[in-house]
Amidohydrolase 3 domain-containing protein (Catenulispora yoronensis), 467 residues
Amino acid sequence: MEHADLVFTGGAVITVDGADRIAEAVAVTGGLITAVGTAEEVGAAIGPDTRVVRLDGGAVLPGINDSHLHAAMLGAYWPAMWLDGMADGGFPVPRQLADRADRRAAIDLAADVLQPLGITSYTEPGLGPGARGQHGGACDDETLAAYVDAATAGELRARVTVLRLFGELDGLSTVADLVAGLDRSTGADDVDPRWLAVAGVKLFADGIPPMHSAWMSEPYLGGGHGTLMVEGDDDDARLAALRAMIGHAHRAGCQIGVHATGDRAVGETVRAMAEALAADADSAAGSDATAGSAAARRHYIIHGDAIGPDTLTTMAEHGIGVNAQPSIYTATPGMLEPAIGACRTDELLPLRSALDAGVPVCLSSDGPVTMPDWRRGVASAVLRTAEAGPVRGPDQRIAVTEALRAYTMSGARQDGAEDWKGSIEVGKVADLCVLAADPLTAPPEKIPEIEIRMTVLDGRVVFDREA
Ligand SMILES: [Zn+2]
């Protein structure tokens, strides 16, 4: 056996493979995972030049995938986080990013925050002309160009998936802007897709429940149902525009992530995605082409605060995922209850129902809305309680194992990359998060306190707390 560069041994190697196996040790050689098993099995890979890291009862996870994270925006606002800032009484102000170099610096600053948290992959959800002039310029086309520059130079410090944005950020979108936008080059054709993949588009279907702008079946406490946030003078026209955008982006080969929070917005978005996917399957059935491209598309709902049971069934049938943010949920009952009441607040974030229905679930931070700390996200999804507050909707709690999968393997699936990242299996890239304690045996409320010891990206130690 070839000697390994790195071996982690003497703890819980939480593989997140298909059987959720726990191993004792893992070896890394030349950027890849080359052995996973007992300490004795993996010990055979230890040579004179191997760095051996004793886990001392700690654990190793696959590198964390924060699958909805505005990293350049995080860099522009750092160290402020939006929800923390609102608790202090004011919305934080970003630094103005004047040019591409400033945007590179913001992306780099984000990496300084993310690597000590064990994050090795993220999705930058929404870069493009729609965000021009907002958030210090952190989400515009120059930011996409800065990512392409960094990838071309081999200087990205996480694996990045980008969704482009042609409508307004948190605002109105039109079919014409989307069609024109998708005709423009991403500039990313020649970069290594394992480091930078411009996968598709982000669309906004509606707003958010606290602002009464999520499109809901049931009225808000003060009346009104919210509405779709796309062009059109009435619900029918807006729905037609949303469906046209989803259909167009799908036929253009894009992955589609749609911000949708109200149950009506989620339901109609899922219906449109399912129809686009079904049309592919029909045309493939009539020809020699396979339907593989449709299965590989990985469309998903972003946020999905309220999702009806029928919608969950359709999502599972078509492999449409939900990308949810438990830390936002547990931080905001005080904003949600005045809008929709306590009962409906408890029913939001239906993670248990989604998993039971077979819907792919990703968890993420939406940083800089919340700190990109997956440990807090896991605790929020498992406990559904804010500090000292009551448990909200106990039926929707999920297990730690499920939450860890939602931050690792499910993110890889969302990226269409489950064959080569997202779990600790031989042959996959060596992206790892090394912990001082085992989150599967720690009390869930203590998970946010587990120390992150090391982060390994592509086989290199990029963060080492002891160094
Ligand atoms: Zn977001």
